[in-house]
Amino acid sequence: MASLVLWMSLQGRAEQPNNRALAAALERAIAAGETEQAQRALAEMLARPQVELEVLLETGAKLAEREYYTPAAEVFGRCVKDYPRNFEAHYNLALAEFALRR
Prior knowledge:
Blueprint: H1 2-10, H2 19-31, H3 35-47, H4 53-65, H5 69-82, H6 87-99
């Protein structure tokens, strides 16, 4: 995933990609089986002070679809924290936690 690697190497020296671009990079890394890059992209997304509700919901759903329930629960947990009135975030977090048998 050359584009994500390039972005990671330029991090701090150039403008960071927006949240949607980071979510897309995460999805491409997962599809390509690049686990480390996917984990770095997810960590970067979750470390950001502001991530849009739609980006979090879409990212969590894509992770859950591929049965990556632990990172999906992390994303939905962030979603619940940042957007506590959103029913879908709570519902999806509950589903991810159920899949993890918690």
